[in-house]
Structure formats: C-alpha cells, structure tokens
Write a structure and sequence with these properties.
Largest sheet of chain A: 4 strands, parallel
Order of helices and strands of chain C: EEEHEEHEHHHEHEHEEHHEE
Helix content of chain A: 40-55%
Structural class of chain C: alpha/beta
Mean pLDDT of chain A: 88
Shape of chain C: globular
Largest sheet of chain C: 6 strands, mixed
Distance between the termini of chain A: 75 Å
Chains: A alpha/beta (341), B mainly alpha (347), C alpha/beta (255)
Helix content of chain C: 25-40%
Strand content of chain C: 25-35%
Order of helices and strands of chain A: HEEEHHHHEHEHHEEHEEHEHHEHHH
Low-confidence stretches of chain A: 17-21
Largest interface: B-C, 37 and 43 residues
Oligomer: heterotrimer
Number of helices of chain A: 15
CATH architecture of the largest domain in chain A: 3-Layer(aba) Sandwich
Shape of chain A: elongated
Strand content of chain A: 5-15%
Strand order of the largest sheet of chain C: 6-7-8-3-9-10
Chain lengths: 341, 347, 255
C-alpha cells in the first residue's frame, strides 16, 4: 500500500544509495570530510598557493592558473601546463572567479591552500554546497607541507608521488633544523626582512611572509609584536641594526649600499644584503606555497654559511627537476640565483 | 604700531598673543620631533651637532647619531613641518573660497587624483620617484579637470558648481583607485598601496625634500601674499566684484596655489586628512577669523600639529602608525567638540 | 558725474528680463527704483553696477563705457550695498568696513594707516563706531545694514547703489537708513536704491523710476510721478493716499 511512510522510506533509500557508494572521504585541514571523487582529471586551484602545490604533484590535473604566468616564468616549467588559461581566484584576498565559469570548467575537485580561518572554512562549505563539487581546504603554513601533500595525494589518487615529495620536504626541513640546533643560543644573527621599494615594509612575528625566515631560528628584528605586514621607520631599523637583510625588491637591493640612510646598518656594511630569487616563483614570502622549500637552502646558506657547505646550484637543479618537472640549464640557474626576473 | 617701510602691522593684543601661541606650538613641535624618537638622542647631542655644523668643527658625537640627525630625523621633521603647514594653509584658503568652514583641501579632488596616480605607479611596479611624480601630476590633473568642467557650466554661483564637480570627480577617481586595488597582486602590490594610502613620512630622505619644498613654498607664499584679499573672496561673488576684486582670475590663482601644495604634500606623505580641516579652526580660535592673520597662523600651527602627530606615529610603537589614522583619531573628537560647543569660531 | 544706461536690454543667459531701458543718475541726487516683484529692479540694478552684462545697449560712467573699467577702477567710483545678510565668518565690523578700501590698494597691499582713518570716519558717520570690534554676525540687522553702508562709503565712491536697504529692518531703523541716504546725496554722492515702499521713495528720493515687467512705466520727480493712479497701475492693486493737513505730508497705503 502506498502511504506516506512507504514513499518516504523509498525516497530516502534512493537518495542514500549514491552516497553509500561514494563513502570515501578524507578530512581536509579544517576537519571537513571532503568526498574523494572517484575519477579525478580536472582540478580547479582556488588561489596561487593551490595552483603551485597542484602543479608540483600532478601538473596534468591543473585546469588553469589564477593569474597568467609570464614568459620568463614558463621557461622553468612544463610549457604546455604553464600556458594553461587564467581562471581567476575564489578565495583569499580578492575574488575574481565567477562561480558559473568555475562550473563550466567542470572540475572534479576544487583545491584551496591557505589559512584555515573560519571565513575561508565557511566559504569552502558554501561553494561546495552551491556547486556540488568537493572543495578541499588545506593548510598553507610552511610546517604543514608534509600533511598537506599527503592529503592532496589521497584526494587525487596520487599517494605515491605525494609521499615522495612529502619525504623530500621532510628531509630538507629535518636536515636544516638539526644543523641549526647546533648553533649556540645568542649566536643567531639578527635578520630584517625588507619589502617595498623603500625597504620599510616588513613581516611581524608569525607573519606568513617571514615564515621561512623564522624557521631558520634567527631573531626576526620585527618580532616584538605578532601580526602581519607593517611599516617601520628607518630609525627603528637603525636601532635594531640587523646583521642580515633579506629583500625581494631589486631596486632596494641595488640602491641600499649608496643610500646614506642605510649604510650604517651592520648588514649593509658587511655586504649581507641578499636579494631573493623569484623565478619561476618566489623563494621567500610569496606566493606562500611549496616554492619556498628551495628558499630554505638559500636562506640557510646566507645566514649560516659555515654550517651549510652544500652547492646551491646542485640543490636548485634537483629541486626544480622534482617539483617543477623541468631541469634548468646552468645559465638558467645563474639567472635565477642572481635574483633576476 | 608701525614697521619700517610704512607697513602697518596693526594687531590687537589678543591676536598677537594668538600668534605667539602658534609660534610656540611650532617650536615645541620641532624640539620634540628632533629629540624624541626610536633612536635615543639627547638634547645636548642635538645642540652640539648643530653648533659643530655651524662652526665647522668636527663633531664629538658618534657618527651614527649624526647620521640619524641629518639624514634620518632631520629630513623627516622638515617634511612634517612643511606638509602640515601646506595642508593647513590650503584648508584655510579653501574654507574662505568656498564660504564653508567645513571644507578640506580634498574638496576639489586633489587627494583622489594623487591617490590614483600613486596606486597606478605601484601597480606598474615603478620606482619611488616615479610613484611620487605620478601622484603629484595626478592631483594637479584632477583639479584642472574639475575646474574645466566647472567653468563650462554656466551658473550664478561658480563656487557651488566647483564644489559639486569636485565631489563627482573625486568619487570617480576613488572608483578608479578601487579598481586598481582590485586588479593588483594581493601579495605584493596591494599591501604597498594600502600603506601608501594611509599616509606616512617613514622614508623621507634629503632628496625628497627638494621636490616637496619647491611647490609647497611657491604655493604657500602665493596664498600668504594674497591673504589680504581672502576676506573679500569669502563674500558672495557679486559683492566681492563690486568691491573691486577680480574674483574669476583670483579664484583660479588661489585654487592653483592650494592644489600645488596639496598635491606635493600628498605625493610625499600619502593621504593625510583632517589637518586641513581642523587646524584652520584651531588657528581661528587663536587669532580670529580675519584671513590676513589666519593664513600665517594656520601655517605655524599646522606645522607644529603635524610634527607632534608624526612624532607619535614613529615612536608610539615599534611599527609605524599611519598618519592618516592618527590625524583622524585626534581630529574627529576635536571636531565634534567644535560642532557642539556654543561659541563656534565662525559664527 | 553721470551714470547712465542707454537702450539697455537686461537679463540672464537664459532669459530676457527687460528691454530698451534708459536710466540716468547724477551725483548729488537720489533715484528710487520701484516696481512689483519680478519687475526686473534687481536685474537693472546689477546691470548698472556692472555685475551683469547688458544683453543690448550699454552703461556709461563718466562718459566711458562701464565695460572698459577694471573692477578696481569701477569700485572706486560705484559702491554696492547689498541687503544685509547672514555672513559665514564673524569678521569684526571694522574688518568689514576696511574691505571697502580694497579698491584703493593693489592686489597684495594691506590696509594702511590712511585706510584705517577713512574706515574710522565712515564708522563715525553712521554712528556705529562703538561696534568696531564686535563680530559682524553678532549685531542686529539694522546695525549690519549700517555697517554695509559704512563699507560702501569707505570706498569713497561717487555713486552708491543700494538693493532694498530697508528690507528686514525694524521701523525705527528704516527711517534712520532713509535719513542717511538723504545725507549721502547732500554730501555729493549719487544714490540709487530699489524699494518696495513708495513712502520711502517719497521721503528720501528726488526722482523715481517705475518699472513693471521689464518696461519703464514712468520716470520723473517723486512729486510728479508718485501718485495714486501711477502706483495702482504699477502694482495692479488698490492704493490709498492719506494726507495730514497740519503737516502737509502724505503717505500711501496698500488698499
């Protein structure tokens, strides 16, 4: 007899069944149970860190890039993947992707790598509800690289490749950490991170911009208070008198020696002002993704030159081959290390 | 009271007192600004460095202290005094010209134009000098556009038309700034734009002072020279013309001079609001509403005011507090008090 | 000296207010301009002041076209007394009167001792010297009108043109201002004023010019022109005239 109860029972059975067969989920960094798609061929990166992470693990799955890559950058990556189209970003700072466009691209998975603040968690859930596409939010913090790779491997059915990259990252971090631990307390140099054309923007304690620098166990001179980015006065820098200055701005690095404001700073006097390489992606600071791993070696060598005798060129070639899937030439490595681009 | 040369410096006792107060504020501001700072410098060091420079003797203080005084703090202090004076004088002139004690130097869109120039410079990753130049030119072009459009509209009240056009163009330029920020790289360019827009004198060098000093001196001198005509310019247009003042050309000159100083200030220091709005009122309460006294008093007071604010900005914490925020925090309560107090300075 | 408008067509950029008007004023005489609201009195006034360009015809001042004078030179010959208004800034009365001296200096000049003397005399003349240091915004309407009169006089002009000088004045002050107008003419100035009140024209003016819908209705000596019939035609309303036989004075009342 068809009464309401039977109809309801039948309907719920029908609805439950597809879920029962797709029961495989994995917890993303926000603790959300993200369903693993059975077949993953296309992944949409919600922002630059996600795009880079995905490119290193499974470049063929990348639908496109949040912002188009420049020609100089593509020389270090797989050419056909590097030139995939611009698809905009969904989350983080600034939303330029239209959800309908995202749907039209038919991704099997949306990947977001970054901060796990409630804002982004709710955005993830909303987009997943609206589009029906699994949305995974993974931790973009530097010390979460290993679990992040593992989760991504599970989501994309590339666990083996993910494990090897995770292991490589683990090895770098462990090696560096161990050697740094041997440095007596008090002998860590004072480091100032200079951003902006005048070099007066810096990252405060715990800011994602100086994550890898602080990983080195140095004293970030701007760490008196926690926060993100801040502007400081040159007087304050003179007072701090850092031993090492790391910068990403080429004009600043070129002009700092002759700048009367800066040349009484220890770092400038001793010639320890270092311009970070940035091809194809920055080695320090941004985008805040796995591209910073090779930056760890670079930082280690400039901060503690005595305890890190490794050849940076070899390390660079190795890293680029594994992570960017393309072996750079000697000339290209020189170009990168000189901070060009 | 007569001065040599036949000039008549007639001033009531209270106005003379008011001037003395304004001058004292400036001097105290300078002293505080030079001696207070993240890098500890004693008053005695300051004086000995100055004396040594004047007498040509080699200095006894450590070179780093000398460096801080001449290269770091000196330029910044001079810039703060100049920008403060410039914005105060421009605000005073505009309050008279637009017959409204509630206008600020931004009313014709100079700040919005400068902001658009600067964020475009940051967007295209240009050098610091290029960014400042774009800001300066942006401010001038914005006001020129407002003036051209405003004069094309025939009206019995040319001043009202200017204000309305300024509001509209300012809004348009503000939308432009928003668009550039939207398209900017969020990791690198956007923070730079945000910091610039909030206003700061953090990186003032000696070489910044010359491009700042030129336009500010020129514009301020023009406005000071014209101060005896400013009272009349605050009357309705027909009345002023009937008194013998060529209001059309004079208005252009005043707007040009005020825009010159505003654009140069914004190009150097970013957007600093409230100085041009609040300092004229403070000056009015000291020396009275006569523009002939108000303009020089505003210059002195504005310089002192911004000096004190900038000192707080760079010593309040290890990181810089943006000037625009400090002036708002100080200016808003003062202005509310002004609006609600019974004896308003203007009527 | 003579201020004369010949064949004037007056108006604004979008509309014509009056046409083919001839007005003349000599120094030493008082001319009253009467007419209903919207007749074009104020427009005519501003055209004669040189504040509004005539659409046709011209205004001659001392034989030269008004257009050819710079604002400064013109201000030394003609002074304008607008209706007393609420000012934005609280200048002192002395500062207000000193503004009248601007036409005698150049662009950057400050008031000289001579300027201050003229201003002081002007204040004395109108009996408001005791208000010198008071803010303009804190004196009464009548006192403000006198201050504006003092400012006009400080220009040391030949002609003084007043726009509705008694509007918003109390009864006592109205009489006072009218007496001042007569004394200004007595001291050699040519005075032109607009008014709504024919009685003021009777008492203070030598001649009257009646304007309606931008056209001249009548012109001539007040005694001749200001009568019941003319006024009724001018205002298109009943008018009463009462005469006091003992004094011989008469007044007009709205009917």
């Amino acid at each position: 007899m068809l009464n309401r109860r039977t109809v309801m029972a039948g309907l719920s059975a029908a609805l439950m069944t597809p879920r029962a067969t797709q029961a495989a989920t994995v917890n993303d960094a926000a603790g959300r149970a993200v369903p693993i798609p059975q077949h993953v061929a296309r992944v949409f990166p919600a922002g630059p860190p996600a795009a880079i992470l995905l490119y290193t693990l499974a470049p063929d799955l990348l639908i496109g890039w949040p912002r188009p890559n420049r020609a100089e950058e593509c020389e270090y990556m797989l050419p056909d993947i590097c030139t995939r189209p611009e698809v905009g970003r969904i989350t983080g700072r600034g939303n330029t992707a239209n959800l309908e466009v995202v749907l039209a691209l038919k991704p099997d998975l949306i990947l977001d790598v970054g901060a796990i603040a409630p804002t982004f968690v709710s955005l993830a859930s909303r987009v997943q509800e609206q589009t029906g596409i699994p949305y995974a939010l993974l931790d973009g913090r530097f010390d979460a690289i290993v679990p992040t790779y593992r989760t991504l491997g599970a989501l994309t059915h590339r666990s083996a490749a993910a494990e090897s990259l995770a292991q490589y990252a683990e090895d770098i971090m462990t090696t560096i950490r161990q050697r740094i631990a041997a440095v007596p307390v008090g002998q860590q140099p004072k480091v100032y991170y200079a951003r902006g054309p005048r070099g007066l923007e810096t990252g405060l304690a715990g800011s994602i911009n100086v994550e890898t620098i602080e990983f080195m166990g140095v004293r970030n001179v701007a760490s008196e208070q926690p926060g993100g980015l801040a502007l400081v006065s040159i007087e304050q820098v003179l007072l701090w008198n850092p031993d090492v200055i790391i910068t990403i701005d080429r004009d600043f690095a070129a002009g700092v020696r002759d700048n009367p404001l800066w040349n009484s700073v220890n770092a400038v006097r001793d010639g320890r002002v270092h311009l970070s390489p940035k091809l194809p992606f920055g080695w320090v600071d941004f985008p805040p993704s796995v591209n910073r791993l090779i930056g760890l070696w670079w930082l280690a060598k400039i901060i503690y030159p005595e305890i890190f005798p490794e050849d940076l060129r070899t390390l660079t070639r190795d890293f680029y081959t594994r992570f960017y899937h393309r072996t750079p030439t000697e000339a290209q490595i020189e170009h990168v290390l000189a901070g060009r681009g | 009271m007569c001065l040599p040369g036949g000039a008549d410096l007639f001033m009531s006792r209270s106005a003379a007192l008011g001037f003395a107060v304004a001058l004292t504020v400036l001097i105290i501001g300078l002293l505080i600004a030079f001696t207070v700072g993240r890098y500890p410098i004693a008053l005695s060091d300051l004086f000995s460095v100055l004396l040594d420079k004047l007498s040509g003797r080699p200095s006894a203080v450590p070179p780093i202290v000398e460096n801080v005084i001449w290269q770091v703090r000196g330029p910044r202090v001079v810039a703060a005094a100049l920008v403060g004076a410039a914005l105060a004088v421009a605000g005073t002139a505009f309050q008279g010209l637009f017959r409204n004690p509630l206008v600020s130097p931004d009313i014709l869109g100079a700040s919005s134009g400068a902001a658009l120039g600067a964020v475009l410079g940051i967007f295209f990753s240009l050098g610091v000098f290029a960014i400042q130049s774009l800001a300066f030119v942006g401010g001038l072009l914005a006001v020129a556009a407002v003036y051209l459009i405003g004069s094309a509209v025939r009206s019995r009240d040319p001043v009202l038309v200017l204000v309305l056009t300024g509001v509209v163009i300012g809004a348009l330029l503000g939308a432009g700034v928003g668009l550039v920020k939207y398209l900017a790289d969020p990791y690198n360019q956007l923070p730079a734009m945000t910091f610039w827009l909030l206003g700061s004198l953090a990186a003032t060098t000696l070489s910044d002072l010359l491009p700042l000093f030129g336009p500010v001196a020129a514009g301020t001198l023009v406005l000071i020279a014209l101060r005896w005509r400013m009272n009349v310019m605050s009357l309705p247009d027909e009345e002023a013309r009937a008194l013998g003042v060529p209001t059309g050309p004079l208005r252009i000159v005043i707007v040009a001079a005020a825009t010159l100083v505003t654009s140069a200030s914004v190009a150097t220091a970013g957007i600093i609001g409230w100085v041009g709005l609040v300092v004229p009122h403070m000056a009015r309460s000291l020396v009275g509403p006569d523009f002939a006294r108000l303009i020089p008093a505003a210059a002195l007071l504005g310089g002192g005011f911004l000096l004190v604010i900038d000192t707080v900005a760079r010593t309040g914490a290890a990181i810089e507090i943006p000037l625009g925020i400090l002036t708002a925090v100080v200016g808003t309560p003062f202005f509310i008090w002004l609006l609600t107090s019974v004896s308003r300075t203007w009527s | 000296m003579k201020l004369a408008g010949r064949g004037l067509s007056i108006g604004y950029s979008d509309r014509l207010v009056g046409r083919d008007l001839d007005v003349a004023l000599e120094t030493g005489e008082v001319l009253a301009l009467l007419g209903p609201n919207g007749s074009g009195k104020t427009t005519l006034l501003k055209t004669l002041l040189g504040l509004l360009a005539p659409k046709a015809g011209d205004v001659q001042l001392d034989g030269r076209t008004l257009n050819n004078y710079s604002s400064r030179d013109r201000a030394r010959l003609i002074a304008y007394v607008p209706q007393s208004h609420q000012a934005t800034f609280a200048f002192t009365v002395e500062t207000v009167v000193l503004m009248g001296r601007i036409a005698h200096g150049n662009l950057f000049s400050r008031p000289t001792a001579a300027d201050r003397a003229v201003a002081a005399r002007s204040l004395e003349r109108f009996g408001i010297a005791h208000l010198r240091e008071r803010p303009y915004t804190m004196i009464s309407g009548g006192e403000r009108q006198l201050a504006l009169l003092a400012r006009a006089l400080a220009q040391e002009p030949q002609f003084i043109v007043l726009d509705e000088p008694t509007a918003s004045l109390d009864f006592g002050n109205q009489g006072k201002v009218m007496r001042e107008i007569r004394s200004l003419a007595a001291s050699g100035h040519g005075v032109l004023f607009t008014t709504h009140d024919p009685n003021h024209a009777m008492r203070a003016a030598d001649r009257a010019y009646l304007l309606r819908d931008g056209a001249r209705v009548a012109e001539g000596a007040v005694g001749a022109v200001l009568n019941r019939e003319q006024l009724m035609m001018l205002y298109d309303a009943p008018v009463e005239k009462i005469t006091d036989p003992t004094v011989g004075a008469s007044a007009f009342l709205p009917g």
